[in-house]
Design brief:
The chain is α/β, with parallel strands linked by helices and about 425 residues long. Helix content is about 35%, strand content about 20%.
Length: about 425
């Protein structure tokens, strides 16, 4: 039976509910900060071990329970961000790239510095900064406080879920620019002043003192230094796109997300680019996975199958990989290698080919911390267990390449000649 109500009855009911909720809230005792954290940790202790595949193997006892008990006991003497970092370290101890606590931003005491770091083959550099710190843009980092970049990397490693050094370096810049992490590692003092020792190409080392700033927008080196935009940075906002390099008769495809663009499903995109290939001279196909962090590995299949049906194309496929190539994107690279005998060019990927995935999320009720966990194990390589998917042709990418707008990885694919 269906019931209806008049507007007056609805308004009356809302007012009654509002009064009831107000009375209820007034009668409900306030839960202390310590008790809220204990509730969160108890929720974590119930949910995480029960849901993560191979939990007992990845988190040996009694070490896991002992660390969790110690964290509960220390709540009263720890700040919120110290509790978060302790939990991050515990979850990261399994060394599973997909299993981690999301690093909070602008909450629970976490504040970012007004600079952004990035690793290159020849070291750490600053690739974005607020206008007050623009002198740092494009500089290589020699020291962060009293630590070298490598020393700071080692200090933050226990807090970053990683399976290889590639992913550790890829994830570490977010930690390097977090005030609490800098203080924890003693790179930064309590005065909130971070001294950087920097050097620009062809210049002398210089020092720059950086302090936290609220809300000011950072500018990238590409905009500030007027760097020419190379092809691989042309459409980073797109799920996928392609361009025909007519001089070399190359079909360049950049695949940035293993997901369907709501405006253009991947199957339609693949049909369009394959039809284009059929109508033009294409001497080789380059699939760029360097920005792809994963998703659904099956999305790319229409392209793989379409290339397979075209022997003239399938025998000349090149795949570009890099530190950001992760999860399903790595699986796709392996698929291109095995299915199309593609040549992999670039650098090693961010995780082991055999590893955990199929992720789910847990949100702690009070702090709202998000924890990602895995529900499935994937074995992509049968006879070994490598730490990463290694390229057939390794190509370093230096800071000087970035500053000049060059792409040595794409150049290597364009100019590759088999023996």
């Amino acid at each position: 039976m269906r019931f209806t109500c008049s507007r007056r009855q609805i308004v009356k009911a809302i007012l009654v509910c509002a009064v009831a909720l107000t009375v209820s809230a007034a009668q409900t005792p306030q839960v202390s900060r310590e008790d809220q954290w204990k509730q969160d940790l108890n929720y974590f202790a119930d949910e995480f071990p029960a849901k993560h595949i191979d939990f007992a193997k990845l988190y040996p006892q009694p070490a896991f329970n002992n660390e969790l008990s110690a964290l509960r006991s220390d709540i009263t003497k720890l700040t919120d961000n110290e509790i978060v970092l302790r939990l991050m370290r515990l979850v990261a101890s399994a060394n599973v790239g997909h299993t981690y606590v999301y690093l909070p931003t602008l909450k629970l005491g976490f504040r970012p510095m007004p600079i952004t770091f990035e690793w290159y083959s020849d070291g750490l550099a600053i690739v974005a900064a607020t206008p007050d710190n623009k002198a740092a843009l494009g500089a290589r980092v020699l020291r962060i406080g009293n630590l070298t970049p490598e020393q700071l990397l080692a200090a933050v490693a226990p807090y970053i879920a990683h399976e290889n050094d590639t992913w550790l370096r890829e994830q570490s810049p977010a930690f390097f620019q977090t005030v609490k992490v800098l203080k924890l590692t003693r790179a930064m003092g309590d005065d909130n002043r971070l001294e950087l020792t920097l050097v620009k190409p062809g210049g002398e080392p210089f020092k720059l003192v950086v302090t936290p700033q609220a809300g000011e927008q950072q500018v990238s080196i590409f905009k500030a230094l007027d760097i020419p935009v190379p092809l691989y940075r042309k459409h980073l906002d797109r799920y996928y796109w392609y361009e025909y390099l007519s001089d070399a008769h190359i079909l360049y495809i950049q695949y940035n997300q293993c997901a369907n663009d709501p405006k253009l499903p991947f199957k339609d995109f693949a049909d369009e680019l394959l039809a284009f290939a059929d109508a033009h001279q294409v001497d080789r196909v380059i699939v760029d996975l360097r920005w792809n962090g994963g998703g659904n590995s099956s999305i790319v299949w229409p392209l793989s199958i379409g290339l397979k049906k075209r022997p003239a194309l399938s025998s000349r496929v090149f795949v570009l990989s890099g530190p950001k190539t992760f999860s399903s994107a790595q699986d796709n690279a392996i698929g291109f290698q095995s299915y199309l005998h593609a040549t992999l060019i670039g650098s090693s990927t961010g995780e082991k080919p055999n590893g955990y995935g199929e992720v789910r999320l847990i949100t702690l009720p009070n702090s709202k911390l998000t924890i990602q966990y895995c529900t499935k194990y994937f074995k992509m390589v049968k006879d070994s267990d490598p730490s990463a998917l290694e390229p057939d042709v390794r190509v370093p990418f230096y800071l000087a390449d970035e500053l000049a707008g060059r792409d040595p990885v794409l150049d290597a694919a364009i100019n590759y000649r088999s023996n």
